[in-house]
Specification:
The chain is mostly helical. It has helices at residues 2-14, 18-92, 102-108, 123-131, 140-153, 157-179, 182-187, 203-206, 210-251. The two termini are 39 Å apart.
C-alpha cells in the first residue's frame, strides 16, 4: 500500500502536476491523521473496557463484603437479644429468691460479662484505598457513599464503650456482689468452706443491693445501645449494597 502511494506521488511529480500533487499530499496526510485517531480511539476503548472489568470486580467484591457486615450484625443482634432475655429471666427469679438455688443463679449470671462486638469486613475496601483502585469506580456519588459507609462502620465507639463498661464496672460488680461467696468459688471449681469464713450468697439481700442493680442497668443499657447502632449500620449497608448492585447491572449491559 505504501509503495502504491509512493508511485502515484512520483508520477505526479514527473508529469509536473504540482497542484494535483499537493492535493494528493494533503489527502494522504488527512488519511494518516484519521488512521492515527482511529487507532487511538480503539486503544482508548480497549483500555476503557479493561478499566470497566476492574470496576466490576471491585464492586462485586465490595458488595459481598458489605453483605458479610449485614450477616454479622444480624448474628450479633440475635445473640445479644437472646442473652438479654436470659438475663432478664434470671433477674426475674429474684421475685421469689427462696425458690432459687444459689449455685444455679451464680452460674447463669456469668453472662453479664459477655458481649458481642461488630467489626466491619473492610479488607477489600482497605486494599482498594491503599492501591488506588477506588478510582476504578466512575460513579462519583457511589464512590463517596462507599467512603462514607466504611468511615461510619469503623467508628466502633459504642462497642468500645460497652467493652470498657464491662471490663471496668460490670465485671468488678459481678465479682463483688455475686461471686465473692462460697457458692461463687464452688462455681469456679473450688471448695473453700473449710479454709474461709465467706458466707453463702443471700439472694434476698442481693435483690436490695443497689450495686447489683447498677450492674443490671449498665448491662442492659449498653447492649441495647449497641443494638440500635448496629441497626443503623445495617440499614446503611443494605442501602449501599443495593446501589452497588444497580451500578453493576448498568456496567454489565
Amino acid at each position: 500500500m505504501i509503495k502504491f502511494f509512493r508511485r502515484i506521488r512520483q508520477r505526479l511529480l514527473i508529469e509536473g502536476k504540482f497542484s494535483n500533487y499537493m492535493l494528493y499530499a494533503v489527502g494522504e496526510i488527512i488519511l494518516v491523521v484519521i488512521g492515527i485517531l482511529i487507532a487511538l480511539q480503539i486503544n482508548d476503548y480497549s483500555e476503557g473496557q479493561k478499566e470497566r472489568k476492574k470496576e466490576v470486580i471491585l464492586l462485586s467484591n465490595l458488595s459481598k463484603e458489605i453483605e458479610l457486615d449485614v450477616l454479622q450484625i444480624e448474628y450479633n443482634t440475635r445473640l445479644s437479644r437472646e442473652r438479654l432475655n436470659r438475663l432478664d429471666s434470671l433477674v426475674g427469679l429474684l421475685k421469689n429468691p427462696d425458690s432459687v438455688q444459689n449455685l444455679f443463679f451464680i452460674r447463669k449470671s456469668f453472662e453479664f460479662v459477655i458481649d458481642q462486638y461488630f467489626k466491619s469486613n473492610s479488607g477489600i475496601f482497605d486494599e482498594a484505598i491503599s492501591s488506588g483502585k477506588m478510582s476504578y469506580v466512575q460513579n462519583e456519588s457511589l464512590r463517596q457513599n462507599i467512603f462514607n459507609y466504611y468511615r461510619n462502620a469503623k467508628e466502633t465507639y459504642t462497642d468500645g464503650t460497652t467493652r470498657q463498661i464491662t471490663d471496668e464496672f460490670i465485671t468488678p460488680l459481678l465479682i463483688e456482689n455475686t461471686y465473692l461467696n462460697l457458692e461463687g468459688f464452688t462455681a469456679l471449681g473450688m471448695e473453700i468452706d473449710e479454709v474461709s469464713n465467706l458466707e453463702h450468697l443471700d439472694l434476698n439481700e442481693l435483690r436490695n443491693n443497689k450495686d447489683f442493680w447498677k450492674m443490671v442497668l449498665l448491662k442492659f443499657g449498653g447492649n441495647q445501645e449497641q443494638i440500635l447502632r448496629w441497626e443503623g449500620i445495617k440499614k446503611r449497608a443494605e442501602d449501599l449494597k443495593l446501589q452497588i448492585d444497580l451500578e453493576l447491572e448498568k456496567l454489565k449491559i
